[in-house]
């Protein structure tokens, strides 16, 4: 009984995570395109544009992670998808908490969000590389 409940709960969270990833990706992509058209991230002008470019890089890495996640999920059994979803939710929590801790001393400063986004980008790229290894198996 407990095992079936765990499987049902895992399946629910898998579906919820996939839905969230798909929805977030669509909104981020349209916003990303509009901002990217307005600034040149190869030569940002001023702190605001630098921060925007850092955010855009993080969003691009997150989009790539979502793509790889979906490709991997498509190759997995129902049980494996549920485990992947649980692992991914746990990873997101660890990533977010680790980055918050890493940049905590900058809280309140004008560069805080940029430092946070750089950390999130770095961790997201690492996770993408990990998931890409599973795709190659």
Q: What do you see in this structure?
A:
The protein has 137 residues and is mainly α. It has one domain: Substrate Binding Domain Of Dnak, Chain:A, Domain 2, CATH 1.20.1270.180. The longest helix is centred in the first third of the chain and has 37 residues. The mean pLDDT is 85. Helix 1 runs antiparallel to helix 2, helix 1 packs across helix 3 and helix 2 packs parallel to helix 4. The two termini are 33 Å apart.
Strands, helices and their partners?
Elements: H1 2-38, H2 46-74, H3 78-102, H4 112-135
Helix pairs in contact: 1-2, 1-3, 2-4, 3-4
The CATH architecture designation is Up-down Bundle
Number of strands: 0
Structural class assignment: mainly alpha
Q: What is the typical, i.e. mean, pLDDT?
A: 85
What pattern of helices and strands is seen along the backbone?
Answer: HHHH
* N- and C-termini, Cα separation: 33 Å
What share of residues is helical? over 70%
How many independent structural domains? 1
Briefly summarize what is shown.
The protein starts with a helix and ends with a helix.
Descriptors:
4 helices, mainly alpha, 137 residues, 84% helix, Substrate Binding Domain Of Dnak, Chain:A, Domain 2
């Amino acid at each position: 009984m407990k095992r079936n409940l765990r499987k049902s709960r895992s399946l629910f969270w898998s579906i919820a995570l996939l839905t969230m990833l798909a929805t977030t990706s669509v909104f981020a992509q349209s916003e990303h395109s509009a901002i990217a058209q307005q600034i040149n991230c190869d030569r940002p002008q001023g702190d605001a544009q630098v921060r925007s470019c850092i955010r855009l890089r993080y969003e691009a890495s997150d989009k790539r992670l979502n793509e790889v996640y979906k490709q991997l999920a498509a190759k997995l059994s129902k049980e494996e998808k549920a485990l992947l979803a649980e692992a991914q939710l746990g990873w997101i929590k660890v990533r977010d908490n680790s980055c918050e801790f890493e940049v905590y001393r900058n809280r309140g400063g004008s560069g805080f969000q940029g430092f946070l986004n750089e950390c999130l980008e770095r961790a997201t790229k690492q996770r993408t590389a990990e998931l890409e290894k599973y795709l190659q198996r």
